[in-house]
Every structure is written in C-alpha cells, then in structure tokens.
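Structure first, sequence second, as always.
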C-alpha cells in the first residue's frame, strides 16, 4: 500500500523555528532513554527481576554454616577430687544438600520465569517510550504547521482587507466588505494567539520528555514519498499481537507461575530428603578432671521428613492455588482479547488515516481552485468579498487538517506495531528517514 504526499508548506514553519540545531526523532528518542523516569524505573525493575531469578537457584544448592561457643567453668568439689577451673571451646561446621524437595523445585522454576517477565516488561516500557516520544514529536510538528498556516491566512486576509478598503475609497464596494474583512482579520489574529500558545505548550511537553531545552524537531521533507508497508488483514495483525505482545507475555507467565504454585502446595503432602554433614571440634583448657578430653567428631547422613497432618492447611492451600490458577487463566484470556481488539482498532485507524490523507489532498486542490475562482469572480463583480474570505478560510483549514492527518498517519503506524507487539527501533528509524535533514 503506497501513498504519495504532496509538497508541504513548510517554509513558514522553518522560518519560525529554524533548522540549524534541529533534532531527528531518533536523536530525541536516544536522549529520552537517558532521561525519562518511567523508562529508567523499568530498567531498574528489569535488573531487580534478573537478580530475583538468580536467587531461585539457591533453592537447589547446598547450604553451609559455622557455629562456635566459648565457655569458662569453675569446679568446686567437696570430695577428694581437687577443685579446678577450665574453659571449653566448641566449633561446628555443617552443610546440607537438598536431594528431594518438590516445593523447592517448583519455586526454582517460578524464579526462572522472572527472566521472561523482566524481558517482557522492559520491552513494553521501551515500546511505550517510543510511542510517547513520537507523539510529543509529532504534536510539535503539527502545532508548528498550524501556526505557519494561520500566519499565511492572516497575511492573505490582510491583503483582502487592504483591497476592500481601497475599493471602498474609490466607491467600487460597500463598507460591508471592509467590515467583513476586518472581522475575519480579527478572528485570524485571535487564532494566531491560541496557536502560538498551543505550540509553546507542545514544545514544553517534548522538552520534558527528552530532557533537552528548546527542541527543534525535523518535519517531513517536501515531496516525501511515504511507503506504508502494511500487509495482511486485521485478523492477521490481531493474531500476531496475541503471539508477540508483551502484555500477553506477562499474563502468560502469570498463568505459568500460578500453575507452579499449585505444585508447591501439593508438595506439602510429599516427603523431603536432604544430605547432611557436620564436623565438630571440642577443646578443653586446663583442669584436672579425669573425664576431660579433646574431641573431633564428623558425621554424614540423610535427613528424611514425611508430613502426616497439618490441620487441613495443605488441602486448603491447594484449593486456594487452584482458584488463583483459574483466575490467571481468565486474566490471560482477557488480555488476549483486549490486545486483539486494540490491534484491530489500530489497523482500521491506519486504513482510515490513509483514506483521510488522500481525501484531504483532493480537498486541498479543490479548495485552491475554489479560491482562485472566487478571487477572479470578485474582480469581475460576480462574487463578493465574503466569498473570497470563506474560500481562504476553507483552504487554510484544509491545509492544517492535511498536515495533522499526515503526522497522525505516521504515529498510527507506530501504534499499530506497538499494539501487535512488534514495534522496534527500526520502525522509528524508517519514519525518521522521511524527515528533513
């Protein structure tokens, strides 16, 4: 699907903003990655989830500990055994290796799911940042072109007002023409003030998003050919979204974690078996007790435990986790349906945008022809001043609508790919390549 864009009226916008220090969409996105608090928060969460996944490995690894005691004793005897004082030093090192712990195995698998969850969350955050920066970027471009067209309309109305005054002075028109032109000039002046403020607000929003002051985004090049490589149907895109969306991936992982939680609950009925080993040393200082000795003791063995009764806690825990697994399944279904619906909506939005741009291009040409005809008719006396003013207003309104529709179409393409879960930096680079350098 291809769409040819007619040359844009960007000269006034360039004069207003200048392009000496203009930034491309890619440049501003890279700046936003190092500034945007939401994205940096997602990066920190990503690192935390990776660390949490590593913690799960400890459930299958051996554990070891060291314990030591130091004591002093006084021995006061009323028998023939002489009195004595002595000290005792004990040190023990112990280790344990799980051999069979079903609950630990399930918890380990849950921990490994954190890696996939972290990747899905970071992917979602990056896609949201891409769209957010692109939205702010195109909002500024739309506001710039709106202001340029308002200024152009103001200049045209000013010329029409001057012509009406001259014609009134020489008696070829009435005061009504002059007043109509003056009213239209005042209206356009008010629109100019509002549009300037709108541009100021949009630029502040973009500056805040990327952390750069006085950003100057590049607009579409004049005569740009926009290639809309959108293949497939709405259902095809929706199916792709169900398979690749980061939102669906998170919900799917949530279901898998819930299923493993059931396995952990069932493990409450199952035995556990650990390999244990200890080594201890006891040392006595001084003393004359005949039973005193220094000892070194090492042991190795198996520790077996079989739960018999836990007051129905395990059975109720299984019921709880089973219900939560069912909830996670319904949540996954809801996310899949929402993602599919959002993707279809975005798909039809892009299709509508293509049609709207084509229609507005035709409307722009028609409005220009109507204005030329009304100007000629006004000169020969078959049209009045208000006809020319209305034609001018219609033409510039159409130009503003067309400029907005073009940028909305570009943004719509990004939102479609975001909804389908396939938005990448390459997509933004392709759009950035259409901007003036």
């Amino acid at each position: 699907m291809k769409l040819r864009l007619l040359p844009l009226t960007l000269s006034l916008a360039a004069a207003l903003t200048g392009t000496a220090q203009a930034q491309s969409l890619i440049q501003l996105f890279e700046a936003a990655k190092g500034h945007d608090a939401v994205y940096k928060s997602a990066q920190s969460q990503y690192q935390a989830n990776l660390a949490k996944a590593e913690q799960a490995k400890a459930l299958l690894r051996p554990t070891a500990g060291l314990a030591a005691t130091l004591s002093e004793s006084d021995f006061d005897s009323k028998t023939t055994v002489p009195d004595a004082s002595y000290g005792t030093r004990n040190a023990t090192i112990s280790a344990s290796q799980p051999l069979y712990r079903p609950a630990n195995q399930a918890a380990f698998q849950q921990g490994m799911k954190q890696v996939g969850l972290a990747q899905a969350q970071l992917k979602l955050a990056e896609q949201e940042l891409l769209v957010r920066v692109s939205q702010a970027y195109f909002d500024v471009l739309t506001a710039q072109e709106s202001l340029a067209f308002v200024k152009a309309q103001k200049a045209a109305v000013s010329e029409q007002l001057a012509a009406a005054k001259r014609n009134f002075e020489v008696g070829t028109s009435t005061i009504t023409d002059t007043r109509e032109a003056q009213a239209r000039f005042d209206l356009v002046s008010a629109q100019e003030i509002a549009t300037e403020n709108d541009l100021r607000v949009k630029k502040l929003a973009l500056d805040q998003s990327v952390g750069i002051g006085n950003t100057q985004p590049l607009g579409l090049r004049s005569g740009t050919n926009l290639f809309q490589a959108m293949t497939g149907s709405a259902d095809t895109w929706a199916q792709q979204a169900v398979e690749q969306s980061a939102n669906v991936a998170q919900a799917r992982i949530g279901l898998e974690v819930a299923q493993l939680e059931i396995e952990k609950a069932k493990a409450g009925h199952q035995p556990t078996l650990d390999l244990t080993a200890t080594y201890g040393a006891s040392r006595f200082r001084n003393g004359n007790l005949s039973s005193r000795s220094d000892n070194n003791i090492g042991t190795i063995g198996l520790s077996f435990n079989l739960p018999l009764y836990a007051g129905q806690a395990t059975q109720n825990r299984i019921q709880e986790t089973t219900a939560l697994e069912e909830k996670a399944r319904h949540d996954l279904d809801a996310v899949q349906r929402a993602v599919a619906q959002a993707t279809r909506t975005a798909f039809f939005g892009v299709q509508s945008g293509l049609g709207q741009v084509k229609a507005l291009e035709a409307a722009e040409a028609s409005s220009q022809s109507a204005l030329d005809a009304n100007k000629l008719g006004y000169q020969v006396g078959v049209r009045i001043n208000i006809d020319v003013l209305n034609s001018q207003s219609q033409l510039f309104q159409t130009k503003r609508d067309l400029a907005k529709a073009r940028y909305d179409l570009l943004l719509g393409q990004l939102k479609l790919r975001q909804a389908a879960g396939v938005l990448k930096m390459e997509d933004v680079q392709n759009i950035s390549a259409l901007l003036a350098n």
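Margin note: The mean pLDDT is 85.
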